[in-house]
């Protein structure tokens, strides 16, 4: 650390007795010019910020009077870093926080200028250079500490939201006192954290996301879009494939929701939503919306919003029952013939129009006829009859090949 000249040391020592006065002037008059400062609690302004200003002024002038250029050292910065953590935790905007430091440096420069006597111009320049160097290090350390604390707070809030969403989706009940949900107090469980109806949204992302970084970015984009759409922090449980979001007090998706979410998640987004009358109904509602998307995808519906009415028959046919295994087994002979399975699904999607099926598959209609005949031969199903066509559709929906 470079030593200061005797003249610079003398000038700094002359200003040190004014520290308390300067700190009071900063917090009571000068800082009032900063946007947002007047709204701070009196305790913060008159006690904590004043103490920080006093500490910074005294540290600079005392070090300078001791003969050392007071470029801030790691030990000297620790106090200001701790205050930055505290201000971030309290929600003080970073521009306001940095404004107090830069304004404080300006006030100190003015005090040095006022105290300088004729012939001390070089000493004043020397101290101003030291002040600029010290201020740069303080600002860098304060900014880094503030952002670190904000990141930690944001991560904690995200995990709280995920924990709340997980607990509600799993139906882990009320009165658990776990404290994992937002707004939960002693003796209150996840379901106690919400009241009234809850909009349950299921999102399914298109395949193709790989790598932890890409997935985290996707999830952050979608979470940000959800928060923006509903104007609140939305509890959600998302991963690279999609997931659920829960919006207390809402009963429908806004008209712009799909477009906003598609921009965040990509054009392959599938989405369905329903209302759970209260927190206890969330697990069943979550299962329903996920199944609507699964069935819509299995039926060849294009990505986008899906509604139960759009897949009402298919949804009903895909419900497990005592005969589900036997229905699914009807297509067991096609297990080793994926070309026939694709042809069957496409033919049903195209309302059993052989020419439309051929067009979608890029085949000649005669080839489609051959494949359909082979399907009938292997399965015993006559797709020309409504009953067997319905059985084939139910078998496709119940088959393992149509899982998520």
Explain the layout of strands and helices.
Elements: H1 6-15, H2 19-30, H3 42-65, H4 74-90, H5 94-115, H6 121-170, E1 198-204, H7 212-230, E2 236-239, E3 242-248, H8 257-265, E4 270-276, H9 282-298, E5 304-305, H10 312-317, H11 324-329, H12 338-349, H13 354-361, H14 365-379, H15 386-398
Parallel strand pairs: 4-5
Antiparallel strand pairs: 1-3, 1-4, 2-3
Helix pairs in contact: 1-3, 1-6, 2-3, 2-5, 4-6, 5-6, 7-8, 12-13, 12-14, 12-15, 13-14
Measured distance between first and last alpha carbons: 64 Å
How many separate domains?
Answer: 3
Q: What is the general shape? A: elongated
The SS-based structural class is alpha+beta
Major sheet description: 5 strands, mixed
The CATH class name of the largest domain reads Mainly Alpha
Helix tally equals 15
CATH fold name of the largest domain: Globin-like
**Cα Rg:** 34 Å
- Spell the H/E element sequence: HHHHHHEHEEHEHEHHHHHH
Q: Work out the helicity level.
A: 55-70%
| Known CATH architecture of the largest domain | Orthogonal Bundle
Biggest β-sheet: strands ordered side by side in the sheet: 2-3-1-4-5
Poorly predicted sequence stretches spanning 5 or more consecutive residues = 174-188, 400-404
Q: How many β-strands, per DSSP?
A: 5
Kindly report the name of the CATH homologous superfamily of the largest domain.
Globins
């Amino acid at each position: 650390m470079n030593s200061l000249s005797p003249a610079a040391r003398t000038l700094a020592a002359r200003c040190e007795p004014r520290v308390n006065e300067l700190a009071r002037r900063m917090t009571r008059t000068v800082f009032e010019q900063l946007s947002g400062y007047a709204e701070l609690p009196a305790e913060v302004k008159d006690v904590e910020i004043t103490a920080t200003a006093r500490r910074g002024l005294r540290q600079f002038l005392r070090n300078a009077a001791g003969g050392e250029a007071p470029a801030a050292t790691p030990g000297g910065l620790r106090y200001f870093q701790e205050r930055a953590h505290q201000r971030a935790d309290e929600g003080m905007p970073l521009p306001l926080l940095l404004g107090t430091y830069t304004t404080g440096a300006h006030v100190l420069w003015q005090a040095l200028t006022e105290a300088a006597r004729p012939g001390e111009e070089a000493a004043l320049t020397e101290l101003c250079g030291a002040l600029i160097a010290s201020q740069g290090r303080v600002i860098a350390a304060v900014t880094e500490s503030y952002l670190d604390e904000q990141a930690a707070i944001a991560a904690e809030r995200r995990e709280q939201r995920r924990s709340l969403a997980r607990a509600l989706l799993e139906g882990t009940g009320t009165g658990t006192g776990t404290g994992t949900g937002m707004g939960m107090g002693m003796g209150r469980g996840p379901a106690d954290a919400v009241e009234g109806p809850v909009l349950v949204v299921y999102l399914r992302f298109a395949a193709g996301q790989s790598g932890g970084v890409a997935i985290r970015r996707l999830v952050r984009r979608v979470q940000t879009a959800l928060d923006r759409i509903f104007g609140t922090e939305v509890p959600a449980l998302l991963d690279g494939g999609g997931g659920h979001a829960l919006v207390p007090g809402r009963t429908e998706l806004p008209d712009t929701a799909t477009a906003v979410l598609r921009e965040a998640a990509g054009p392959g987004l599938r989405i369905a939503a329903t209302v759970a009358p209260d927190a206890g109904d969330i697990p069943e509602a979550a299962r329903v919306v996920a199944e609507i998307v699964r069935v819509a995808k299995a039926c060849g519906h294009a990505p986008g919003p899906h509604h139960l009415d759009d897949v009402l028959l298919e949804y009903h046919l895909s419900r497990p029952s005592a005969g589900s295994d036997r229905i699914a087994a009807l297509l067991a002979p096609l297990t080793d013939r994926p070309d026939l399975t694709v042809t069957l699904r496409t033919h049903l999607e195209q309302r059993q129009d052989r020419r439309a099926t051929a067009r979608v598959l890029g085949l000649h209609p005669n080839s489609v006829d051959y494949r359909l005949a082979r399907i009938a031969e292997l399965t015993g199903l006559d797709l020309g009859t409504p009953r067997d066509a319905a059985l084939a559709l139910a078998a496709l929906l119940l088959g393992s090949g149509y899982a998520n």
